[in-house]
Design brief:
heterodimer; A: about 300 residues; mainly alpha; about 70% helix; about 0% strand; B: about 325 residues; globular
Chain lengths: ~300, ~325
Amino acid sequence: MATTDYALAHARASAPMAPRLTTAAAVMKFVRTKPLGAAGGAIILAMLVVGAFSEVLAPYDPYQADYGLQFTRPSVEHWFGTDEFGRDLMSRLIYGARIALFVGFSASFIGCTIGGLLGVMSAYAGGRVDLFLERLMDMLLAFPQLILALAIASILGPAVQNVVIAISIPIIPRAARVVRATALSVKENVYVEAVQALGASRPRVVLQHIVPNVVAPYIILLTAQLGGAILAEAALSYLGLGAAEPTPSWGLMLSGSALSYAEKAPWIAIFPGIAISLGVFGFNLFGESLRDALDPKLRGR
Amino acid sequence: MRTYILKRLLLVVPTLLGVATIVFLIMRVIPGDVALLILGGDDGGQIDAQQLAAVRQQLGLDQPLIVQFGTWLWGVLQFDFGKSLWTGAPVLDELLIRLPLSLQLALMATLVSVIISIPLGMLAAVRQDTWVDYVIRVISIGGLAIPGFWVGILCILFLVIVFGWGPPLEYHPPWVDPWANLSMMVWPVVTVGYRYSAVTTRMTRSTVLEVLREDYIRTAWAKGLAQRVIVIRHALKNSMLPVITLIGTEFAFLIGGLVVTETVFTLNGIGRFVVDAVAHRDYPVVQALVFLIAFSFVIVNLLVDLTYAWFDPRIRYR
C-alpha cells in the first residue's frame, strides 16, 4: 500500500502538466486545433520550397530581357505575362520569394537576437544598466518603424544587405522589451537563487538558466516579426530604398513603371502584390496561432 | 491630476532629448560622408579635395561632433531646422505648406477606421468563436498582410481602367473647394484607413472580450439585463479607454501609411516629403522630419496618457 502511494505520488510529481508529445504528434495537434495556423504554415512551406528551388521551378531566366515579348498577356507560356522588358513575371516572382524570405528571416533574426540579448542583460543586471537600457529602448520606440528604417536605409544606400540592417534596428527595442519582461520573472525563480548560492558564475547563470527560459517568447517574437519584416522590405523597395533593379524584389516590381503601364499591362501591378499579401498573410496566421499554442495566457484573445 | 500631469511632462523632456540625440547620431555616425554623398563621390567619381573641404565647412561638418549637435539642437529649440539642400528654402516653410494635406488625410483615415472597426470588433467579441468572429478575424489579419501601397495601386488601376481617371494634381483645402478636395482625398483616405481599421478591429475585439469577463458584467447578467444593454451600456463604454490608447499607439502605423500612400497617389504631403528628401539625399530635411515625427509621436502618447488618467483616476496614483 505504502509503496503504491509512493509510486503514485512520484508518478504525479514527475508527470508533466500535459502528456509529452512527439514532434509529429505535436504537429498533428497543431493542425487539428489551429486550422488557420496550419494554413499559414502551408503557405510558408510553399514559399520556402519556391525560394529554395527557384532555379528548378522558374520557367525562364528572371533577368533575361526580350524586347520582342514586351507586355505579353498572361498565357500558357507566360502564366503571369511579361513586364516592360519582356521578362517573365512568374520567374521573377519565384526568385522574389527568395529575397523576401532572406530579408524577412535575417532582419527578424538579427533584430530579435540583439534585442533579446539586451533584454536579458537589462533584466539580469538591474539597477543603472537596466534603467539606461530601458530609457534607450523607449527613445527608439518613439520612432515609427518605417520612418526609422527609411532614415537608416537612406544613409546606407539601396542594397539588399542594407535593407536587412534598416529593418532589423527598429525590431531591437520591441524584442528587448518583451524578453526583458520574461527574463525579469525568470530571474525571481528559486532555482536561479539556488545556482547563484552554489557559486555559479554570472555568464553561467545567464546562459544556462535564464536564456533557455526566454526561448519561447523569443520564438513567438521572431515569427511575429517575420510578416512585418517582409512587408517592410516590400515598402522600402517600393520607395526605391531597397533592392535595386534588376533584382526581382516584389516591392520593387510594383514601383514606378508598374503604374505607368496600368492600362496596357495591369498584370504587372497585380501579381507581385498578391505574392506579398499571400506571403505576409501566411506568416501572420502562423505567428498568431503559434503564440496562442505556446502561450496559454494569451489564448482566446 | 496636476501632479500627474507635471510628472508626465517632466518625463517627456529627457525622452525628447534622447530622440534628438539618436536622430543626430544616425545621420552623422553611420558610415557614409554627407559631404561626399552630396558631391556624388560615393559612386566612385573623382572628387576635388578642396571642394569637399568647402562643402564640409559650409555644412559645419568640420566642427567637432558635440559642437555640431549643440548648434543643431539650439536651432531646433528656435524652430530653425536648417535649409533644404534641394530647394534652399527653410525646412519649416516647406513643412508648413505640406502639413494641411497630411493632417486632413490622417484625421479622415482615423475617422473612417473608427467607424468601421468599433462595430466590427464588438460584433466579433460578442460572437466569439462563431463564424462571424472567424470571418472578421480573417479579414483583419488579411488587412494587415496587404501592403498599403498595393491597395493604392489597385485603386488607381481600377479608376484608370474603368473611368480613365487621372490623379488630381493640386491640393484644394476643403474650405475652399470641398468637392475638388474630396475627389482627391477619398481614395487615399480609403487606402490609409483600411489598414488602420484592421488593427483597430483586432484591438477592439480583444478589449471587449476582456471587459466581458469582468465581474460587473456577470452582475449585469445576473440582474437579468438584456444582452443589448449589457454590451452597449456596460461593455462598450468600458472598452473605449483602451481604444483611445490605440489611436495613440497606432500613430506610427498612420505615419507609415501616409508615407506610402502619398507616394502612390503623388500627393504633396509630409509623407512624400520624407521620401523625396531621402531620394534627393536632402539630409537637413530628413533629419528634421524624422525628429519632428518622433516628437509628435511622443506628444500624442503624452496626450493619450493624460486622457487616460482623466477618465480613469486610478492611474494617477500609480
